[in-house]
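Re: the request from the purification team.
They wanted to know what the chain is likely to look like in 3D before they choose a buffer screen. I agreed to run a prediction and write the result into the notebook, where they can find it.
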Amino acid sequence: MGRRQPEFSQPAAWWGSLDDKQKLLFVLGFYCAMGERCYFLTDIAETPHKVFEGTSTGAGIVRSMFQAAADLCNYSGISPSELVAHVTDFYTDPKNESIPYASALQYIRGKLTGEGEQELSEELVKLRNQHPPGTL
């Protein structure tokens, strides 16, 4: 019998079972989803909110919250093949094996876009504590 595919809920094992083409297709799908999310959130951030009509402070807060969320899903400037390589590298560390894909990709995005080392280190510790190896 053939090799059994690891469950999608086992991030490192599942990622490791994919060939290069499958990894690239996964990342391209992720890029499409994040692009749509970014567009949607940016559109909301630029739209005046009726709830806050007449209060520029409230509208400004809502705008900045949606723009911050949109910025988090912006992967422009990161090539799909570069992201694939970094995800593969990320999951080679056994301490990262249970960290969900979305969290791993978000962490890697921060790393590639120049977030501070201290902030990245704290984020990785937090992710590893939330998702210790062997837990799913």
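For the purification team: The chain has one domain: 11-130.
Please add any questions underneath this entry.
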